Amino acid sequence: MARNDTIQKENRKALPKFLLTVLGCALLGGVLGFMSAMFAAEDILEDILEGAARLLSAVCPWGIPVSSVALLGAAFVLYRRSAAQYAAWDADDEEDETMDAIERQLSYALLFTSLAMLAGMFFLAASFLCENPLVNVGLFCVSLAAMTLLQQKIVDLTRRMNPEKKGSIYDLKFRKHWLDSCDEAERAQIGQAAYSAFTAGNIACGVVWAVLVMLNIFADTGLLAVAAVLAVWGVLQVSYTMTCIKLSRRRPSAPDGNRTGSNP
């Protein structure tokens, strides 16, 4: 009974802030809707879309090479710096600060390679705006090959630093083998990062859905983009919930006999 009282108190305490947040979002949506209607009435939104299309048409032929050189170049610099620091590292010092710094640099290097892939995929999708789309396709393939090779170098260096790690980047089950070779602390870190990504994904999907709905109402962009966002959002929600259900079957009960929930 005391537990139920605590739950009700927490709900009552959080409810006003939740209602204010919902009210604020509704007001913001109303303002954006009014502005969108005003823009649509004066053809401002159409002019903005046409201007964006012309800008993208001018940028698209240079998008893949410029983004690849900038992002993959930064990743390569971080990799080379990490490799040099590891080669000069003395294992007898028993200091983890150097190794931690190297691993952070390698993590940023992987982040830059992922951003390069996303940028390349965007400009590849916009290839129809180029005079010669096949050139963009070829540039994307070159960028993808360079990104894959660089990721392999980063993973190989990480494995040399951590001999217990397993898995080749060319293995289709690389993520499974890598996760199996992680210890409990690393798995907990991966779990925290995954939950943070899940939360950010939910927020991003909600914002993008709202924007696309407004665009469809006032610019008649169609429901395909809205459906695509909802499909991604659905996969995110279902995958997370089903994984929680699957993992809860393996988890033993807590010492007091209560099961701890992992699905908020």
UniProtKB/TrEMBL annotation:
The keyword Transmembrane applies. The chain crosses the membrane at residues 18-41, 53-79, 108-128, 134-151, 197-218, 224-245. InterPro entries: DUF3169 (IPR021509). Coiled coil: none annotated. It comes from the Bacteria. Keywords: Membrane, Transmembrane, Transmembrane helix. The keyword Nucleus does not apply. Pfam families: DUF3169 (PF11368). This is DUF3169 family protein. The lineage of its organism: Bacteria, Bacillati, Bacillota, Clostridia, Eubacteriales.
